[in-house]
Design brief:
The chain is α/β, with parallel strands linked by helices. 28% of the residues lie in helices and 19% in strands. The longest helix has 18 residues, at 150-167.
């Protein structure tokens, strides 16, 4: 080892346990929400979805129709401090601001945000972190990311943000690798849902079909979705057999499991509560079980389209 190597500062330790999920501790701060109302970010708050001002301008005319894909706040200079995690942290540390990695740095996204979290931990600065899926806008000085095929964006954004969320890092996210603002918002919420960080729609877990599957998995999943897709925040597992199904669906709220040919067992979490239900009755019995445990509400009545003038 050379003298220069021995004099180099040691890299920071990982700011998380890679074998156990624990959300990074951060300060709960108040920022301005989408319509100017106070919005809490950090602490034990749900992870928020951000949008850039230029992206908001493209969809402001339909913001009221975005429904579950409506952003929580607009990124602006007053609520965000951009940092290079390779450099010393600033001595001035506002208590009511989020931090993020600066755009344009030659760092992989996951590496950059892990390093930022480590630097913050070393400095005992529990600022909330805004995660980004990309550090490279299209051209210097612009906020619009370079166009890319959506499948590529979906994979790279999901990999980067999903990995960091599973590390326990992040209090808000910003997808800026997708050119279309509406598509970026849908991707943001679906990444949070897939990571288990923010459930905004019904979540389904289904095993891949195999020789032990005791019913048509695709048709059954479609029937269950048709009956329950309006239940936001409920996780339903659809498992073909009792061999591996109960273990694979351990974190589901309710389970629909093949118990024997033509027979279904229903679960609450890991516990089987209904046995040998005829398959023809099983979906309605699942709905009854959800109702019995207070997780059911009726689907909204579709709004009739206004009649056109003759």
């Amino acid at each position: 080892m050379s003298a220069s190597d021995s004099d180099s500062p040691a890299p920071p330790c990982l700011p998380f346990d890679p074998f156990t999920y624990t959300r990074r501790r951060s300060t709960r701060v108040v920022i301005q929400g989408l319509e100017g109302q106070p919005l809490h970010v950090g602490g034990d708050e749900i992870i928020k979805v951000a949008i850039r001002p230029t992206s908001l301008q493209q969809i402001v005319h339909k913001i009221d129709r975005l429904g579950d894909f409506r952003p929580d706040f607009v990124v602006n200079d007053t609520s965000l401090i951009e940092l290079d995690p390779r450099l010393p942290l600033p001595t001035s540390r506002p208590a009511d601001a989020m931090v993020t990695v600066r755009n344009g740095l030659d760092l992989p996204v996951i590496t950059a945000f892990r390093l930022l979290a480590a630097r913050l931990a070393e400095s005992q600065w529990p600022a909330p972190i805004l995660l980004k899926d990309s550090l490279h806008p299209a051209t210097p000085g612009t906020e619009v990311p370079a166009p890319a095929p959506f499948v590529r964006t979906l994979l790279t954004s999901s990999t980067a943000l999903g990995s960091l969320l599973c590390d326990g890092i992040g209090d808000a996210i910003l997808v800026q690798a997708e050119e279309a603002p509406g598509q970026a918002l849908r991707l943001s919420f679906n990444i949070l849902q897939a990571a288990g960080s923010r459930i905004f729609k019904t979540d389904y877990v289904a095993c891949p079909s195999c020789g032990r599957t005791l019913f048509n998995l695709q048709e059954t999943t479609a029937r269950i979705k048709a009956a329950t897709a309006h239940l936001k925040g409920v996780k339903i597992a659809i498992m073909g057999c009792i061999v591996n199904g109960p273990g694979e669906m351990a974190d589901a709220d309710f389970g629909y499991v093949g118990g024997a040919p033509g027979k279904i067992n229903l679960y609450i979490g890991k516990e089987a509560v209904k046995f040998n239900i005829p398959e023809a009755e099983a979906v309605s019995r699942l709905v009854d079980l959800i109702k019995d445990h207070g997780r059911w509400f009726e689907p909204p009545t579709p709004t009739a389209a206004p009649a056109l003038a003759g």
